[in-house]
Amino acid sequence: MTAAPTLDELVRHAGSLPSLPEAVNHVMRSLADENADIDSLAQHISADPAIVARLLAAANAVSSGVSTPICSARQAFLFLGVNRVVSIVLASTLLHRYDIRNPGFNTRQLWRHALGVATCARLLAEQTRLNADLAFTAGLLHDIGQLLMFSASPTRYLKALDLHNKGDMPIVDAERALFGVDHATAGGLLAETWKLPGKIRDAIEAHHEPDQFGTDIGDLIHASEVLSHALDLGEPQENRVPALSDRACATLGLSWSKLSGHFAEIEARYDGLCIALGI
Questions:
Q1: CA torsion through residues 78, 82, 83, 89, sign
Q2: How many CB atoms lie within 10 A of CB 101?
Q3: Is residue 55 located within the same domain as residue 112?
Q4: What is the pLDDT of residues 216-228, one digit of tens each?
Q5: Band of residue 180 on the pLDDT scale cut at 50, 70, 90
Q6: Rounded CA separation 45/206 (Å)
Q7: How many CB atoms lie within 10 A of CB 67?
Q8: Cβ neighbour number for residue 211 with a 10 Å cutoff
Q9: Does 119 share its domain with 63?
Q10: Which phi and psi (to 5°) does residue 101 adopt?
Q11: What is the CATH classification number for the domain harbouring 178?
C-alpha cells in the first residue's frame, strides 16, 4: 500500500476532481440572498441542459397525476416551490457527477445517507429559524471529504472502511489511523477548492466534532447526522448512532421531545426525494 497522501497532496488532488457546474454554484450563492428570485434561478438552471433534464424528470415523477406535464425549470419552481427544486437540483447533480463505480465504495449509499442528513437539516433549520436551504445543502455535502480521500488513495480508503465496518471503529478514527486526517478535514479542503460558501465549509469541518468549532451550522449538521442515523435514513443494517453533543443541542435550543412529533414528516420528505431522484 502506498504512503498516505499529505494534506498538500489532498489539496492538489481536490483540483483534479470535477468541479460543480456553474448553475449549481449560482444556486448555492443564492441561498443566503434575500433578493434572489425564481426567474433568475430558473434562468441559470436552464443554461445547463443536463440539469434541466434531471429536474424535469424528477419534477414529473413527484407530480404524477397532474394533467399538464412540467416542461421548464420555471414551471418546476412554480409547481414544486423553491425549496424542493433546489433540493432536487443539488442532489441530482451530486448523484450524477460523483458516481464512483467501485464494489468497495458505495456512492449510492453515501448519497442516500447525505440526503437523509440534508432532509433532517432542513427540518431542524425550520425549527431553529436558521436558513433551511443552506442547511439542506450543507447536509448534502457534509461527507464530500470521503470522495476526496477515496479518489486520492482508493486502496488506503477501502482499508479505512474495512476497519470501520469490521473492526467496529468510528469512521473518523479509521481515517485518522490510515491518513492522519479525517473526511471532515478533507471535506473542508475540497469546499475551499470549490469556493463553496464559508458556512457550508464550516458545517463540513464541524459535523463530527461540533464542540471544537462552536458554529450554529456545524451544530445543526452534527445534530442532523445523529437524527438521520437514529431514524435509519438510508443507512446500512449495521447502522451505528453517533454520540450527540449536549452543548450543540442546548445552543440550538433543540427539544427532542417536541421533535419526535416531526419524525414521520422527516421520513415522508426523505422517501419523496428518494423517489424523485430514483435512488
A1: positive
A2: 6
A3: no
A4: 999 999 999 999 9
A5: very high
A6: 30
A7: 4
A8: 14
A9: no
A10: -100, 95
A11: 1.10.3210.10
